[in-house]
């Protein structure tokens, strides 16, 4: 090749390179904040998923979720009853701090105070689309409904699915009955604040899981191009339970197993929607429960997995629940976390993940993101307070040590459970004495060791006193310094 040809070719290549160098550089794209999906079960026990030991049915989608993320074994609901637990989840506070206790009935004059900041409000301020599909139970008056608490849209029941004028077997309650439910309205399935339809029969209830799932998937499809928060609090397996025709009779554990198989299907539909929309890698999926199983309902109740007692009780069966978190590429696949954690920790963790500020009012939750990233040396939470009823301090915890304080409470032990939707007895005024348990070797809370470890007993009694000073305690007639009022209407 002649030198002139080589020279000309060189000039041409240099010109092309220079032209590209003169083009304006493209700004690096900012990472889209992760989507958040929070699935919250009602009365699901610690032993109710096959990855937690359930028998006679399988939950393959949830097992897969656990295999791709983190499965927590020491995760506590904030309180073992519906409304209180939900207030805690959404605000990151012990429910008695924000004035919510028990389970609110239809037309209650109280609800979650609009001045409290919910997860939905934090994320909405960050530009997230926010949707809720399922049970609310934080006040059914218009002032308290989800669209007043940070959610752009809502479809679901305003309270528990047993708060209707229907008997345990699905028959209408007689007008001559003294049952307090006789004056309840039929269950309103709400869209924002309007009633879509009334849920009047068990066949109507059998459609709820499908309705919530369809609405959640539709929301994901509509908001796939911007960050979103989906809160999916299922109405079941809280009694009464019912499965759709597709799942009825499918399990070896009767209706309860059928219901759990349908819930598992629902999780599968959510995960499929994420994958089909290319959102699989940028979505945090959290699955947990509001409290343990309602054991006196027998074969229509779940399993505490060998833990003591169940719903409505401060022993571990009432508050230790399944929790699975999956965030592809962040949570190590198949990790089991035994660290003490709680539903009140989800708000500050989500705030950190999504880059939002914490609420202006003090909260009780701690950031557990280091655990989600696989740092099992981290110990973000060491202490926990077990409150029940309006404001009874029934136990305190430090790591694996739990001090049960003298109190009266519900007990299922020694009582024959009910069957096929009818409850057995669960007396409410059983006295529980002072007792110290080492949950590391005694998760069933059977062996009182306070005489063996007097120094641990003394330490936890100081923790209890700190809890009373902060939040109060009806048992010892103490008023807390830092409690806030619920919302209230005239």
Automatic annotation (TrEMBL):
InterPro entries tied to this protein: Alkaline_phosphatase_core_sf (IPR017850), Sulfatase (IPR050738), Sulfatase_N (IPR000917)
Region of interest (Disordered), ranges: 471-490
Sulfatase N-terminal domain: residues covered: 34-355
Segments crossing the lipid bilayer: none
Requisite cofactors: Ca(2+)
Entry GO MF terms: arylsulfatase activity; cerebroside-sulfatase activity; metal ion binding
Domain of life assignment: Bacteria
Alphabetical keyword list: Calcium, Glycoprotein, Hydrolase, Metal-binding, Signal
SUPFAM superfamilies: Alkaline phosphatase-like (SSF53649)
Enzyme Commission code: 3.1.6.8
Enzyme class: hydrolase
Protein family (similarity comment): Belongs to the sulfatase family.
The protein, known as: Cerebroside-sulfatase
């Amino acid at each position: 090749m002649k030198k002139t040809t080589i020279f000309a070719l060189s000039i041409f290549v240099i010109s092309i390179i220079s032209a590209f160098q003169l083009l304006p550089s493209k700004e690096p794209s900012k990472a889209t904040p992760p989507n958040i999906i929070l699935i919250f079960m009602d009365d699901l026990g610690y032993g109710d998923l096959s990855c937690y030991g359930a028998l006679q049915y399988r939950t393959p989608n949830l097992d897969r979720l656990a295999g791709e993320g983190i499965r927590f074994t020491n995760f506590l609901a904030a309180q073992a009853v519906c409304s209180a637990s939900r207030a805690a989840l959404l605000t990151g506070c012990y429910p008695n701090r924000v004035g919510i206790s028990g389970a609110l009935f239809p037309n209650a004059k109280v609800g979650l105070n609009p001045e409290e900041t919910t997860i939905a409000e934090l994320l909405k301020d960050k530009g997230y689309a926010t949707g809720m599909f399922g049970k609310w139970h934080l006040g059914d008056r218009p002032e308290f409904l989800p669209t007043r608490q940070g959610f752009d849209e809502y479809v679901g029941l305003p309270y528990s699915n047993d708060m209707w004028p229907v008997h345990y077997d699905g028959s209408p309650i007689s007008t001559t009955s003294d049952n307090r439910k006789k004056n309840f309205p039929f269950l309103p399935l709400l869209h924002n604040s309007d009633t879509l339809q009334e849920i009047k029969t068990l066949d109507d209830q059998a459609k709820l899981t499908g309705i919530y799932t369809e609405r959640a998937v539709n929301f994901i499809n509509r908001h796939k191009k911007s960050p979103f928060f989906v809160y999916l609090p299922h109405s079941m397996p809280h009694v009464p339970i019912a499965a759709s025709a597709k799942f009825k009779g499918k399990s070896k554990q009767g209706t309860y197993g059928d219901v759990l198989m349908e819930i598992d299907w629902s999780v599968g539909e959510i995960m499929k929607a994420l994958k089909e929309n290319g959102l699989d890698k940028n979505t945090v999926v959290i699955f947990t429960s509001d409290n343990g199983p309602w054991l006196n309902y027998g074969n229509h109740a779940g399993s505490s997995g060998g833990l003591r007692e169940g719903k409505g009780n401060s022993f571990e069966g009432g508050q230790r629940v399944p929790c699975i978190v999956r965030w592809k590429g962040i949570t190590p696949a198949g990790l089991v976390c035994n660290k003490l954690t709680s539903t009140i920790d989800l708000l500050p963790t989500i705030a950190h993940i999504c880059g939002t500020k914490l609420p202006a009012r003090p909260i009780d939750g701690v950031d557990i993101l280091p655990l989600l990233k696989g740092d099992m040396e981290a110990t973000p939470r060491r202490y926990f307070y077990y409150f029940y009823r309006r404001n009874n301090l029934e136990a305190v915890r430090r790591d694996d040590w739990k001090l049960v304080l003298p109190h009266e409470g519900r007990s299922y032990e020694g009582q024959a459970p009910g069957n096929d939707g009818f409850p057995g007895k669960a007396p409410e005024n059983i006295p529980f004495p002072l007792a110290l348990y080492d949950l590391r070797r005694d998760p069933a809370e059977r062996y009182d060791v306070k005489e063996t470890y007097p120094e641990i007993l003394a330490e936890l009694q100081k923790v209890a006193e700190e809890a009373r000073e902060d939040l109060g305690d009806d048992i010892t007639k103490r008023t807390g310094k830092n409690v806030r009022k619920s919302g209230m209407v005239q």
